[in-house]
Design brief:
The protein is mainly α. It contains 3 helices and no strands.
């Protein structure tokens, strides 16, 4: 009677060991699959991080270029304001209506020349 019980105990112990080994094997396979997925995800994240860094670097370069352009445009604006002030002062010193009535050919030539210079300057500024 105890011999049969001993046999069942050994069978039970053997089944337990086989179940434990099967569970350990499944756990190992699951862990390996998770590690493989994490490695793949890590590679993707590294690629995204690299792309983000390149984008940041490009944006910093663009910001510096835009600052230089803004400074250049500010300088040109100051020059244009000085020129405008000079023109306003000239117009205040001269009575163009009277001069136009007295010497229409002279004034027309000068106005046309100044207008051409102004338009040429605008074309030059906007072409860059």
């Amino acid at each position: 009677m105890f011999g049969g019980l001993k046999l069942y105990g050994m069978l039970f112990a053997g089944a337990f060991v086989i179940a434990a080994l099967g569970g350990a094997y499944l756990y190992y396979k699951d862990t390996q699959a998770r590690i493989a997925q994490l490695v793949e995800n890590n590679a993707k994240l590294e690629l995204v991080a690299q792309t983000n860094q390149e984008t940041i670097n490009q944006m910093q370069t663009d910001i510096m270029m835009n600052q230089q352009r803004a400074e250049e445009l500010s300088g040109r604006l100051r020059e244009a304001e000085v020129y405008q002030d000079e023109l306003v002062a000239k117009l205040r010193r001269h009575n163009l209506t009277m001069l136009t009535e007295q010497k229409p050919g002279l004034i027309e030539t000068r106005v046309n020349k100044a207008t051409k210079e102004l338009f040429d300057g605008l074309e030059e500024i906007t072409a860059n």
